[in-house]
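Budget justification aside, the reviewers requested a transparent look at the raw inputs and outputs of the sequence design task funded under Objective 1. We therefore reproduce one unedited record. The lines immediately below are the structure tokens for a 105-residue chain.
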């Protein structure tokens, strides 16, 4: 199940237990286990409501890469290392998931 979710992250950047289960044809329990596992290693982030309940999981690094790609397009499809765009978010931080960071999510 984890590998199936990873394979579809390019198109499914925001997931709920129900959507992951339905898309991959598994139980909600199996989908939940896979999403939690991906969050523990830092691939997905948990998004919570105002009461602290997890409402969805997001692929923040993938979203940041999409934003970076869009930034390069605003510069005229050029290299953003040489010519910085005036608009858009900053480039994503490059880091590896650590046990401490995974526990925070």
């Amino acid at each position: 199940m984890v590998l199936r979710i990873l394979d579809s992250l390019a198109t499914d950047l925001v997931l709920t237990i129900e959507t992951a289960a339905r898309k991959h044809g598994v139980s909600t329990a199996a989908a939940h286990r896979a999403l939690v596992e991906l969050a523990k290693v830092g691939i997905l982030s948990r998004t919570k409501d105002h009461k602290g309940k997890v409402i969805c999981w997001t692929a923040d690094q993938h979203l940041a890469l999409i934003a970076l790609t869009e930034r390069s397009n605003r510069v005229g499809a050029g290299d953003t290392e040489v010519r910085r765009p005036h608009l858009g978010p900053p480039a994503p931080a490059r880091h590896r998931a650590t046990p401490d960071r995974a526990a925070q999510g």
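The chain has a mean pLDDT of 78. The longest strand covers residues 54-58. Computational costs for records of this kind are itemized in the attached budget.
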